[in-house]
Amino acid sequence: MKRCFFLLRGVLTLLVLGMLVTSAWASDALMDRMADFDPSNPVVPKGDTIKIGHLNPFSGPAAMNGELYHIALHWVAHDLNKQGGVMVDGKLKKIEIIKGDTMSKPINAKKAAERLILGDKVDLLWGSTGSHISLVCQQTAAKYKKIYVSALSISDSLMDAENFNRYTFHTPWTTSQAAKSLAYFYAKRPEKKFYILCQDYSFGHALAEKFKGYLKEFRPDAEIVGEDYHPLFTKDFAPYLEKIKASGAEVIFSGDWMPDSVNLLKQSRDSGLNLPFANMYMDDPITLGVVGVEGSAGLVNANQYMINDMDPRTRELNKVWNHLHDSKWEEPYNSSLYVWPLGVVASAINTTYWMMDVVERAGSTDPEKIIATWEGDKYNSFAGVLEMRACDHVTVRDTYVSEFSHPAKWFDNFSYIDKIVTVPSYVVEPPLPEGLDRCKK
Amino acid sequence: MDATTAMYVGQIMHGLAYGMLLFLVASGLTLIFGMMGILNLAHASFFMLSAYFCVSVIHMGGNFWLALLAAPIITAVIGVMVERFLLRGIHASGHIGELILTVGVMMVIMEAVQVFWGTDSHMISVPSALAGMVNIFGLQYPLYRLFVIFLALAILGLLVLFLFKTKMGMIIRAGVSDAEMVEALGINMPLVFMMVFAAGTWLAGVAGVAISPLLSVFPGMADQMGMDAFVVVVVGGFGSLLGAFVSALFFGLLNSFGIQFLPRIAPVLMFVFMVLVLSFKPKGLFGERE
Amino acid sequence: MTKIWIKTLAAIILIGLLIAFPKVMGVLNTNIFIGFAIMALFAVSLNLMLGYTGLLSFGHAMFFGLGAYTTALSLKHIDNLPISMALLLGVLGAVVCAVIVSPLLVRLSGTAFSMLTLAFGQLMYIVCLKFREVTGGADGLGGFPVPDLKIPFTGGIDMTDPVNFYYFAITVLGGCILLIWRFTKTPIGSVMISIRDNDNRVDYLGFHVPSVKSLVFIVSGGFAGAAGAIYALFQNMVSTDGVLGLFTSFNPIIMTIIGGVSSFTGPIIGAGLLTILEEFLLRYTDRIALFNGLVLILMIKFAPGGIMGIWDGVYRKWFKRRTLS
Amino acid sequence: MNILETKDLLFDYSGHKVLNGVNLEIREGERHAVIGPNGAGKTTLFNVITGSYKPSSGSIKFQGREISGMKPYQLNRMGVGRSFQITSTFAKQTVFQNARMGILSKQKVRFNPFSKVDKMHKITNETNLLLEQSNLAESADMPAGLLSYGKNRALEICLALSTDPQLVMLDEPTAGISKDETKTLVELIRKLTENKTMVIIEHDMDVVFSLADRITVLHHGEVLACDAPEVIKNDPFVKQAYLGTLEV
């Protein structure tokens, strides 16, 4: 008996040693692979490559979103290209990213998508911020039978019965998952009075409706003391903040994204309104850096990805990314916004790895093969298990909510993620869209 | 000071603050139009340009006050160059040529800003001396917004003094009613035009710097302010400073109370007023010149 | 006789080129060409007011947007509505708006006219943006069915196929441009030109200037509505920002100025140049508006007559003909 | 019967009475001249009658109908044509196109957006006829902006007559042209206003006395005298109005 015990212990130590070595080896491997990665002027492979069209605004008021996700796509491409590329149609092909500027306008999005499909002959389309823009990209891709990975807009309506098409895959979480995560978080919290301030377009309205619905479910005693929708890219939030002060609200629920998110947070703290924001996009260093430790204390952020050090692969990603940021990157990627791979950018990297893994397993960029592989696929990403629901192409995953506090592990000049509340996927799984026959049991 | 009156006072103060900033921008616009008959559609772009200069000045180590001094002056210089080299030679094709040229200038400035300063929002923190709140009979009100109101009032006072008490002011007022006649009296009008254009752009520059700590500085900031200032000038009456002041306050308060009571219709109201005034009183409420 | 002969020959060649275009140039360039043709009609309809009657409108997007929205909404809410009917409804929408707006506008001229048109344009933009239930607000209105073109005897022609749509669009847009050309050649056309040169004298010659101006306003609005309707069918998507924004009003002005204000074909050349410029620049930079702005400034400063103005100058120098277009 | 009558016509321009109770009578078919020193109110009287300004009070009757306050286009359609002291033609259009504007208005072709104007032979012929009468035929294809000053004045008058009005009002037609050109212009005026009533404002006394059947002298906004040319020639008051105080 003793001998087998001794044997068991040996195996165990060997295993742990192996783990340590591989992670060490692996981290060195990622470090080596990414050592020369420069997002400001990425290496563009030529010849027979897998072409991915990146649809996002690169000019106009929300131009910074293009810059934000540019680094995510190129990180994955650079990593995989350094490993020789992806085996497709029996050949190892490198990944090439081509920009398509939507200028935050539906019409330019359609033109850019068509130019990528017909002009540059891309294999896959990836994008786009702004649900109304993503819808146009999705429809254009389907028209020319191209796979469109809707990786950034999270409106449920994008994949409902009316807008669903089999060439589109929704990899981020959805509005209902976000709203349910926040409602779930507040189930055990004392706050009772909520004020809703969202952007005046389909995403803002849908998010508010879902949150009100789930809040009634989790907290029948909760009360909505006010509701407002401000135009996109609003400048002066003062009148709205004044209304909130008078309403006696305890929490402000807002789904605003950059640049509205930073304006809203900054102006509320400047005007002495220190209520917590229940939000999804107030997690980047620029927004938080402006309001400092007290200004960002108590913010409740829900996200599909939260930076942590549990999984060895995330630990490795954080380490390599931070090292490169401090040592190598130039304008604009050396700013405080990119110190760590955070929220939306990290999630984009995570789902892009998944996308390329699906392409490799499908062994081809032919849409039919990709659809067959991706539907119902379960992928162990470095941020938990991602499952692509077969009938409506929506990804189901655990989501995370965290109340910012100080001191936090990652930043010292503002409060940030510390304790993370995980919302299990079966709780937050979005309902199947009615009227979509594919989903009828 | 219970909640509702606090809200009313708060909204009034916001209305005044935004109205005052609107007046700074609109005053430049209406003076330039009054004097030279040019409606400078690029005026709001100078407002944004100055905000970006403020960002650069603070980046290069200067403080807010240096920026408040330097940025408007740099913007005024650029404004003068635009008037001198672009606007001056094209009176031939009449107002239409000038109007469309200012559209070109607006487009160039809006894009050039993104080339030099990038696309993301730049933050300017409220200067330490003005940070924090002040207690006005029970209401907590940000000190900085009060500063903006008084700054604008001070500039208005300066402007009125200059226009009504100095010789140059008299020339400018005469020029508003009949520029050719004043020129006939031997006054170097092109020089006066240049000075008025410089003053107008300087005013917009001051507003640009004053607003940056309140809002973030980003490429889209000119559109909203530009359209509001335009409505203020049209309703107030072209070339009339008083008109600009009254309608700037009116629309500032409308902006606050519109959102408070009828959020969906507030922006529409602004344009309904403008259409009504333009249709029935093309010269505007106080204007003398179409 | 030779003059007419040359003209018909040129027409035949042009039509031949237009028919062969999609086969030769491929789908992407065909779509770009349709985009160009839409903007050409839009700019020509604006020039009817600017170049021919001396009225600068900063709110022309109002008619373009209304044409687009009426067509989109009618296709969305009225099922199996034929495509020609949708087009007509679009034009009608724009005409009705022009009829309502023109009495207020035609009493003014010069800067006041431009400012009121800008006011109306922005009012229409904000109203469409705010009443999302009807217009889809910032999200826009998409996914409405584009029905087949029903020709009495043959079956329907599928309009979602880019090449079929190209032929349909080019016939409609080309037809409209010809109609405008013919309109400028009619008596009302010469009255318009006289109003541009000296509206006071026209009054003393017995013409009621405001009613002529409103007729021009309505005709120009109607054709802009037609361009908007084709745009809605082409993009299958109408968004407030895309069809009613400030720059939708400025673009035709820029095209007309660059092409040549005082000539009929000026706006068409301007539209072509801007489309090519945009396609070319898009590969290298995101700053298209910067180049457009620069070109506009240079044009007004050094060549107020636009390209046609330069061509006319050159033509006169070489051929010594005394023409003042 | 008087084709045109004004009764106590008053027009004050912010306090200053430019026209102070003017009673003017123009007989059918006569050539009537209105003279007077500068600032007598001649041009204002003209502008009030032709609808540019609204009179403060008093009545204007044309062919028995009250026309004070009517718009210029209405007056023109009733048969009143006028020319301008400062040439106001369509510079960018050819002389032919200028004249055709009047003919189009005369033929009431004002709103026809269908037929090609160049194809309307009736209009073209009539325009050519008018141009011949105004001896402008040879410069028909020349843009008005390139005409000599004299020719432009002729075009000005041609335009005034192009709508075939019963009453033609000419505002200093010979202003600023040379002696011999004046002669040809006067002949042209005489020829064109054959069976029409004409009212002319003129400073050149030779033109006045060669053309006018009757003369009205206007002074400080009032009618000083209204009589045949010979009578006016040696009327002491008229001399005094023109020459200042009478040397005794």
Automatic annotation (TrEMBL), chain A:
Residues 49-403 form the Leucine-binding protein domain. Residues 1-26 form the signal peptide. It comes from the Bacteria. InterPro entries: BCAA_transport, Leu-bd, Peripla_BP_I. Keywords: Signal. PANTHER family: LEUCINE-SPECIFIC-BINDING PROTEIN, PERIPLASMIC BINDING PROTEIN OF ABC TRANSPORTER FOR NATURAL AMINO ACIDS. Belongs to the leucine-binding protein family. This is Amino acid/amide ABC transporter substrate-binding protein, HAAT family.
TrEMBL record, chain B:
Pfam families: BPD_transp_2. GO terms for biological process: amino acid transport. GO terms for molecular function: transmembrane transporter activity. Keywords: Amino-acid transport, Cell membrane, Membrane, Transmembrane, Transmembrane helix, Transport. GO terms for cellular component: plasma membrane. Belongs to the binding-protein-dependent transport system permease family. LivHM subfamily. This is Amino acid/amide ABC transporter membrane protein 1, HAAT family.
UniProtKB/TrEMBL annotation, chain C:
The chain crosses the membrane at residues 32-50, 81-106, 113-132, 165-184, 215-234, 254-277, 289-311. GO terms for molecular function: branched-chain amino acid transmembrane transporter activity. It is found in: Cell membrane. GO terms for cellular component: plasma membrane. InterPro entries: ABC_transp_permease, LivM-like. It holds the Pfam family BPD_transp_2. Keywords: Cell membrane, Membrane, Transmembrane, Transmembrane helix. It is a multi-pass membrane protein. This is Amino acid/amide ABC transporter membrane protein 2, HAAT family. It comes from Desulfatibacillum alkenivorans DSM 16219.
Automatic annotation (TrEMBL), chain D:
It comes from the Bacteria. Gene3D superfamilies: P-loop containing nucleotide triphosphate hydrolases. GO terms for cellular component: plasma membrane. CDD domains: ABC_Mj1267_LivG_branched. The keyword Glycoprotein does not apply. Keywords: ATP-binding, Nucleotide-binding, Transport. Residues 4-245 form the ABC transporter domain. One of its GO terms (molecular function) is ATP binding. It holds the Pfam family ABC_tran. The keyword Metal-binding does not apply. InterPro entries: ABC_AA/LPS_Transport, ABC_transporter-like_ATP-bd, P-loop_NTPase. The lineage of its organism: Bacteria, Pseudomonadati, Thermodesulfobacteriota, Desulfobacteria, Desulfobacterales. This is Amino acid/amide ABC transporter ATP-binding protein 1, HAAT family.
